[in-house]
Structure formats: C-alpha cells, structure tokens
Design goal:
single chain, alpha/beta, Rossmann fold, 12 helices, 16 strands
C-alpha cells in the first residue's frame, strides 16, 4: 500500500512529535509513506512555525526514517481574515494556492492508494488529488475543530462541503461530531463515513519512561509535570509554585521562559526528546494541563495527547473544569482562580495512581483509521 499524508502544520522531520508522526510510523508496516507538508512560505518564519529549521530542505524530496518527506514552500500561503469585507480576497488567495504548480504533489497523488488529510487546510487539496487519482481512498484525520484552531471561514465551509467525498472521516472525539466547522451539524453523527478514532500510545511506552529523571529529595518532596504549549497559561504556576513549596513543577516545551514567575520550584525546559519527556511523565506525582481561560472545546478532554499520556501512566491530572470530561483521575479548577487551583492540586496529590481509561496503541489507531468498519469501538452512536 502506498500512503500519502497531507499536513498543513507538521513535517515528519521535526523533533516535536504529534499524532500524525506516530500514525506515519505505523503505516510504514503497510508499505511506502510519503509525507507532504504544505502552508509554508517566507512569512512562516515570523509565525513561530516549527518547520523553520527545515528551511534549507524546502521543495526537495528527502528520505527520513523510511518516510519520503517534502516541505512545499510557496511565495505566499493563504491566511484567515477576520474582517468580513476581506473574505473575497481570502477566497481568491485560496483559489490560487489550491492550483499552484507542484510536480511532487501531483506525482505522489498519482501513486497513492490511500491519502490521509490532517486537520487544518490540507483538505482544500482533496479535489485536486481526486482528479489525478480517482481510485485513491480519501481519509480525513480530524484532530481539531477548525473553528477552534482559527481556520478561515473559507476552509471551514469547504470542509463541510467535502464531508461526503471522504471515504472515512476519523474524529478523535465523539463530541466533535456535533460541532463541525462554521455551522452546527448535528446530523454528522449519523453520517455513514464518520467514525471516532482516538489517539494512541507507543507499545513500548513503559520502557521509554525509565529511568526516573528526578533526583532524590526530602521525603515530602513531590514532582508535577506539564507538557506542551497549546493554550499555555503561565499564571497557573504563579499560583501553584507559591502555594506548594514542597512540589517541583517541571514545565516542558511551553514556549515560555519563566519570566515573571518568581518561585524557584517552577522549572522551565525547552522542547526535549520524546523519550525524555515520557520519563518526566511516568515518574511524576501529578500531571498538569494548564490551559488558558478561553472557550475550551469539549473534545479537548479526549483529544489532548498529553492528558492521554498522563492517563496511561495513571497520573492524577489537574486541568480546567471544561476539559475534565468523563475521565476519572482528573481534577478541575477555574482558570485564574487561586483557591480553585489549590484545591484541585490537593485533590490530585491525595488521589491514587490508577489508569482511568483503556488506551489504544498507535498500531491499533492506524488500523482503525484505514478500516474503521472492522471495529465496533469506532462507531459514533
């Protein structure tokens, strides 16, 4: 089987790993994998794009870890305009971008048996790819709601239009089926091509988690871990660091440098090797998901990869009430409320370490994305 992955946010070669990287790894056992990364232009270096270190490798095919990679750099990439009067310009830019010449994309599309489009603007290339290769199986991997990640109205409406043209729409959470793009589509849960396929973990995750990175300390010393930069709220640690002096807070890959947080027990780390991050998670006393006090989507309770990893290791988790979901072992707080934060941390400290849900391996996830009808747990309703 020849698989083409189209992503507007990730490149297989970047060190920070998202779910699409793990899925790509598993698809190698099925055959060749081509990873096409789009929405990259000279403006990307001003947007904190994780692919900027690959600048010298743009518009070149490179084999990395068994995967053929291509980062498509164009003179511009379309963006979302908030002002309604600019939407005609937005549509025109997308129209041009969708038709921009790219021999590698067209060649890989012609070769593909399966095409997987990741959340974001990647599906705008669906019809181009389908024209080149009408026999290809078309799959949408929905990790995020487009409205929640700030996608343009053009892309939101385009995806709604394209839903029936996918062979599989694989959503990471059932709650995503009731809210799609720009409009509420309650009927999506009954569409025969829509399935739920959550994130997974590596089969050897326990082995990756050793040894412990934490030094011996006093008997009452505790360790909390926070991983990732999505909607990161540094004010959480201003409160928590002061309230729990016997706890060390290890904040990994937040994009924040710790300026303004005086507590010496809050330590900020840059992005680190994946296996090292897993060590910090496995041996922590509690996990933290310090999301900002914005309108948090309900599906984040299921789609958060860091909270899935916390759950896998039975780590009591502190997070805003909005993303507690139905998962045991999570303790909610009201963002920006010190007493609420302190109460949630105390509850987490007192909680046993128990895995709160069954977790798929990435191999099981990949199999469900490819053939969801073979599994009863992929049904939305």
């Amino acid at each position: 089987m020849n698989t083409l992955i189209v992503s507007a946010h990730h490149d297989y070669r970047t060190p920070n790993r998202a779910s699409i990287h793990f899925v790509a790894n598993e698809l190698l056992s099925h055959g060749a994998v081509n990873f096409f990364s789009m929405r990259y232009s000279p403006a990307s270096k001003y947007k904190n794009d994780a692919r900027v270190p690959l600048e010298k490798q743009t518009n070149k095919v490179e084999l990395h870890g068994g995967v053929q990679c291509f980062l498509w750099k164009t003179p511009f990439h379309p963006i979302a305009f908030k002002q309604r009067w600019l939407w005609p310009i937005e549509r025109a830019l997308f129209w041009i971008y969708e038709r921009w010449s790219c021999a590698v994309l067209d060649e890989w599309a012609a070769q593909a048996d399966v095409v997987i489009f990741e959340s974001g603007i990647a599906p705008i290339l669906l019809r181009r790819i389908a024209r080149i290769n009408p026999q290809a199986r078309l799959i949408y991997k929905g990790n995020d709601g487009l409205r929640e990640i700030g996608a343009s109205v053009y892309v939101q409406r385009k995806l709604e239009e394209l839903i029936p043209e996918f062979d599989v729409v694989a959503l990471v959470s059932k709650s995503m089926a009731t809210r799609w793009g720009h409009h509420s589509l309650n009927g999506l849960a009954n569409a025969n091509n829509v399935f739920v396929v959550p994130h997974g973990v590596e089969e050897r995750l326990d082995d990756l988690g050793d040894p412990s990175p934490y030094a011996e300390g006093p008997k009452d010393s505790l360790h909390a871990v926070s991983v990732g930069s999505m909607l990161f709220d540094p004010s959480f640690f201003t409160v928590a660091g002061k309230a729990f002096p016997n706890m060390t807070f290890h904040v990994i890959g937040s994009g924040h440098d710790g300026v303004g947080i005086a507590s010496k027990n809050v330590i900020f780390y840059p992005r680190m090797q994946y296996s090292k991050t897993i060590q910090y998670i496995k041996h922590a006393d509690i996990g933290i998901a310090p999301y900002q006090a914005l309108v948090l989507p309900a599906y984040l309770a299921d789609s958060s990869l860091k909270m899935l990893q916390y759950d896998y290791f039975g780590l009591p988790t502190v997070c805003p009430f909005e993303v507690v979901g139905s998962h045991k072992g999570r303790f909610g707080y009201n963002a920006g409320n010190p007493s609420s934060i302190e109460r949630a941390i105390k509850q987490a400290i007192a909680s046993p370490h128990l895995r709160s849900r069954s977790v798929l391996t990435w191999s099981e996830v990949a199999n469900r994305i490819l053939q969801p009808t073979l599994y009863t747990d992929t049904k939305i309703s």
